[in-house]
Design a protein that fits this description.
Helices cover 38% and strands 22% of the residues. By secondary structure, the chain is α/β, with parallel strands linked by helices. The chain has a seven-stranded mixed beta sheet with strand order 2-3-4-1-5-7-6, sandwiched between helices. The protein is globular, with a radius of gyration of 15 Å.
Length: 195
């Protein structure tokens, strides 16, 4: 079974913000694949269902971003999955333009507090992740203010498209085709001249 975790902050005030694209992706998966809710447990809202013929559990940690790892650790331990091969984390990335995707098999937190918390709680940085670009912070903005701000209309269109691509990538990844997902979506969303 795969556990797919989208990162974000609970409560209505954070809905639609840049920091919540992980939550938005989980909401899309729930709708697209008709995944029934299992309620709340392991410090997360979660549901179990099928994506591309594979059993999955989708989850939105309710801990607030900086403590996301507490929920992820509970889910990993309870369901006895291997985080290196059966965990997929979806989250926002300010180093990518809105709508870009980057799929990785491991890596540092890159300054992302949710990922920092997951690495600290799991004791490894080797887990599958999908980064959804939300654009760079403008020069005079505070980082927290920026990631907690909503998207412009134009950005929202691009990000919604990226979420659809993330869902297609997840279909490949849960069928052990992460390399194919990386080739397809890391390339497709790259700017000209971006390696």
């Amino acid at each position: 079974m795969y556990i797919i975790v989208g990162l974000g902050n609970p409560t209505r005030q954070y809905e639609g913000t840049k920091h919540n694209v992980g939550f938005d992706t989980i909401d899309y998966l729930v709708d697209e694949y008709r995944i029934p809710s299992s309620g709340v447990g392991h410090k997360a809202m979660f549901g179990k269902g099928m994506i591309a013929g594979r059993k999955v559990l989708v989850a939105k940690p309710m801990t607030y971003m900086n403590l996301s790892g507490e929920s992820v650790r509970e889910l990993v331990n309870y369901y006895k999955i291997d985080p290196e091969t059966e965990l997929i984390v979806v989250y926002d990335d300010i180093s990518l333009a809105p709508g870009q995707l980057r799929i990785r098999k491991k890596g540092s937190a890159g300054g992302h507090n949710g990922i920092k918390s997951i690495i600290a709680n799991l004791g490894t940085d080797k887990f599958l992740r999908i980064k959804v670009g939300v654009g760079e912070k403008p020069k005079n903005w505070d980082l927290a203010d920026y990631v907690l701000s909503p998207f412009s209309k134009e950005e929202r269109v691009e990000v919604d498209e990226a979420i659809r691509h993330a869902a297609r990538a997840i279909e490949l990844m849960v069928n052990d085709k992460t390399d194919a997902a990386m080739n397809e979506y890391n390339r497709k969303s790259a700017n000209a001249g971006d390696a």
